[in-house]
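General statements about sequence and structure are easier to judge against a single worked case. In the encoding step, the backbone of a single protein was reduced to a row of integers, each denoting a local shape. The record that follows shows the chain in one-letter code together with its fold in token form.
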Amino acid sequence: MASSDSPVTWERNGISYRLLPRDYDHEALFDFNKKFGSTPHNFIPDEPVRAHFSRIATGETKVWGAFSGDELVGIITGENGGGYWLESGDKKDSACFINEFVVNPEYRGKRIGVNLTSMSVDPKAGIFAIDPSISEMYTTVHKDNMTSHTAFVKGGYHEVLTYADAPRSRDTTVLKFSSSANAKTDIHPRGNAQTMRVVGVQSGNAVDGIDVGIFDFDPLVRNPSDSRSLAASLNYTTLANKTYSFTPEERQYVLGLRAMRLEDGNEYAEGNYKFGEWIADRVNRLIEESGIPKESISLIGSHGQTVSGHPHWEFGDLSIIAQHTGITVAGDFRPADVGAGGNGTPCTCTYDSIMLRPPASSSKWRIGINIGGTSSVTFCPPWPEKGQPETEVPGGMDPGLGVFFMDLTVRAIDPTLEFDDDGKMARSGTVNEELLSIFLQNKYYKKTLPIGVGPDDFPETLWEEWHALAQSKGVSDVDLLTTFTELTARQIAKACAKWGGPNIVNGATDDVLLRGGICNNSYFVERLKANFETELNTTIKDIVMLEDIGINEDSWENAMYAMFGYLCYNNVYNFVPSCTGASRPVVGGRIAPGENFHSVRLTDTPM
């Protein structure tokens, strides 16, 4: 059992969390609370609050603190009994009430609030470990205080009711966490009540290697009217992330599979198993290199390697991965969407519709662009106001090429190079408008929604054909690279203008977010901005990157497939039918049990 003498300490995102000892300066706590906690949503009467903090010395008040180094940056406090409890009178002695919950606003974006609310009910660090007689934790928040409300829900609490609080001249929402209703295993706490550790793994259309990441996902915030949908974004923390590059032989092997020319079908079966072994090897390597205990990982979300895009066919057998790692695997996500009439793509629309939507206060939609070997776009509406129904749904499609033809051209110029560093070579060349016009007449660009791209749409053989055409016209490889760079930028802008709708075109939005390694190509970013301004008839001050909104660029795509697995395992929709063309939302994926499967289970958390 935890105590103030031997507190459990969490280290997350550079912030440490712990139960404060009884001799902690209660006046310092009061001053912190007064300085950062006095808001229009939270009136603090001095004497009752000062008395509450003074009871830390007797153990009646428990305080969990968040620290950046030695600086206190957040607190959450609880006191047995309290003024609000919803069970019969004999339950009062077994209830604890959260009195104060404050975070220094200078440290927003580090999920301090969510971590504090999670810690308050953690089985090893929270109230139930400190005082086993407590079975229920309560708190109340101003109905309009969505920041605190969301932090408690993501920490595992659930909303009980909202009532007219006449003494406070407001509507008050009561939230509750029950130790019995949120029973969980010690080995793999998961579900709505606690963080779940998931590996995300994939190999993209650029065919440059296998990407692996390890993530802690915060609890799901489910929609009360449909427990298989989310009511808010989903936070996660990146613990480790790495790309394991293919050897030249491995890359050629994958490209050979993607060419779909093998006469012996057994070679494809062998490739599926072999790629599963490769994925498992990279997952095991990252776990070992990072020092993260394997037993702490609940799930692997694997996208595998796309071999065919129409229909989608991903290699990397799930059971092979599970058997070689010992960890349960969720994967093969796309067929469910296809079965519901969709393309099974773009997957990025799922991530974007959860992570990139502007807040309800925003009047503008966001255009989320991802560029890897190919490209995808999501039109993201703002979140609805709390309690209000969705009136807008995301849109999206795959515009076409990404960096694949650009990278092939770079290798033709210099076989020792993998990509055009900062776009320096492309910047030195000239766009050949004749070739660009021919490229834009490709049949892919004449498709109608829903539009999904696969490796068979822009195969290496098409690059060879266009490369030969350029040579026949006397166009240098450098000018061809400049032309391909312009092609990717222009096709995306044109697709957004054609399919974005009234919330995107004619100056309706200037909010454009770009991600992918191409963010480091300043020449491409300039050309994308120029094409968007022309096609959307708007002025764009800056193209936003993931880092600008607090999301790690290097790991987001691995996080996306970890998210797909997390949602699948928790029976939550992980495809957006308004983007894929499906007739309904689906929970896509299959589960391959690993050695840990018996110890991983859903909680009984109320939805």
Summary: DSSP finds 18 helices and 22 strands in the chain.
